From TrEMBL:
GO terms for cellular component: cytosol; protein-DNA complex. Pfam families: Response_reg, Trans_reg_C. GO terms for biological process: regulation of DNA-templated transcription. PANTHER family: REGULATOR OF RPOS (PTHR48111), RESPONSE REGULATOR PROTEIN CARR (PTHR48111:SF37). Keywords: DNA-binding, Phosphoprotein, Transcription, Transcription regulation, Two-component regulatory system. The modification 4-aspartylphosphate is found at D51. One of its GO terms (molecular function) is transcription cis-regulatory region binding. Residues 124-218 form the OmpR/PhoB-type domain. InterPro entries: CheY-like_superfamily (IPR011006), OmpR/PhoB-type_DNA-bd (IPR001867), Sig_transdc_resp-reg_receiver (IPR001789), WalR-like (IPR039420), WH-like_DNA-bd_sf (IPR036388). Residues 2-116 form the Response regulatory domain. Residues 124-218 bind DNA. This is Response regulator with CheY-like receiver domain and winged-helix DNA-binding domain. The keyword Phosphoprotein applies.
Length: 221
């Protein structure tokens, strides 16, 4: 899934970016408030991690502009400011969660996953579809309890479709969520990826809706 990381502290940004990539996310990174506002308003992100102390347009202003424009992406505020009144201000501005610095990367990832699950209407970290179980905490997939090895891209595909079960997801949306902006993508990359996943997990998991995209039906077991 594609995450927008907005952080002007280079050391913190590098650490968070590395942790997000290790956790299976695709990351777009910026240290500028105006650029963050534009990206969040025009691109399709699963969530945003937003620092408040940005140069130029500060984080709260970015968040208020997103919400005023109807942008509903989940937002986790990340800031060195620990005052309770500023936390309240951030939540009132439309933040979904708040994590003060310093923090543990494990907690950041856990909170981010929880935000994304809630936004998709998922209460559990375990996603089940028939014989297939996906554990978003361990980034692991199994069939009838047997672990199945997936590449990072294969895992991202399955995770995104299962977290949006019941909705047809276009090839363009999948491309945006699975690949970084500067990655050179083949026109049939998603189709090839879907084919590999079907061979590993079974052809019945992912349906093709010609001209529209791909679908994982909600689990009815």
């Amino acid at each position: 899934m594609r995450i927008l990381l907005v952080e002007d502290d280079e050391r913190v940004a590098e650490g968070v970016n590395a942790a997000l990539n290790a956790a299976g996310f695709v990351v777009d990174q910026t240290n500028d408030g105006e650029d963050a506002w534009f990206r969040g308003d025009t691109e399709n992100y699963a969530a945003a991690i937003l620092d408040l102390g940005l140069p130029g347009l500060d984080g709260l202003s970015v968040l208020r502009k997103w919400r005023a424009a109807g942008q509903r992406l989940p937002v986790l505020i990340l800031t060195a400011r620990g005052d309770w009144s500023e936390r309240v201000e951030g939540i009132d501005a439309g933040a979904d969660d708040y994590l003060p610095k310093p923090f543990r990367m494990e907690e950041l990832i856990a909170r981010l996953r929880a935000l994304i699950r809630r936004a998709a209407g998922q209460a559990s970290a375990l996603l089940v579809h028939g014989r297939i179980t996906l554990d978003t905490r361990r980034m692991a997939v199994s069939v009838d309890g047997t672990p199945i090895h997936l590449s990072p891209q294969e895992y991202r595909l399955v995770s995104y479709l299962m977290q949006h079960a019941g909705r047809v997801v276009s090839q363009l949306e999948l491309t945006e969520q699975l690949y970084a902006q500067d990655f050179e993508r083949d026109s049939n990359a998603v189709e090839v990826l879907v084919g590999r996943v079907r061979r590993k997990l079974g052809a019945e998991l992912i349906e093709t809706r010609r001209g529209f995209g791909y679908l994982v039906e909600p689990d009815r077991s």
